Amino acid sequence: MAMSSTYADLLVPCEKKKALVVNAAVVIGASWLLALSAQISFYVPFSIVPVTAQTFAVLMIAAMLGSKRGSFAVLTYIAQGAMGLPFFAMGKAGVWVLFGPTGGYLVGFVVAAMIVGRLAEMGWDRSVLKTAAAMTLGTLAIYTLGVFWLTVLTGSLQTALLVGFYPFIAAGVFKVITAAAVLPVGWKLLKKAGIK
Hints:
This protein starts with 15 loop residues before the first helix and ends with a helix. Helix 2 (about 55-65) packs parallel to helix 7 (about 170-190) and helix 4 (about 105-120) runs antiparallel to helix 5. It is built from seven helices and two strands; from the N terminus they run αββαααααα. It has one domain: Arp2/3 complex 21 kDa subunit ARPC3. Strand 1 (about 40) and strand 2 form a beta hairpin. By secondary structure, it is mainly alpha-helical.
């Protein structure tokens, strides 16, 4: 399939020096948005992993920025949190977070950004069904790696699913539906405005 543009491609100027500055600003800004979404968090009963707005933010950032900028934004976010900024869920910080219960999900964010970003570059974010499929694949990547790491930590797949997957199914479905409703409409509005 032919490559398509992402939302971010519409912002980037043709001149190389300006493009570098804009891309850097977009990546850093997206990493801060991801850090902000991590603070919208709470624990559900029996879970050691908080419910956050991060998964939705990761999926939307990836779709809007593409695979490279999206994954760089996630990596930048993780690096800032690992260096001590209170960017992780519940204001946590430090390298130790990467080895805790949420470590697998953080790695999953990078993989999801690559998958969803690449599919968006292929134009999957232009239709409701393809957007939903892309978001579902990205969500599955996040939870697969998250549950895998929880299984390593707890020694039980059943426990990992109980505390790290089942409580998040409804929210995950809601996030996929929301993204599938929003992204294609955005492209239609841009087309009407003559920006696309």
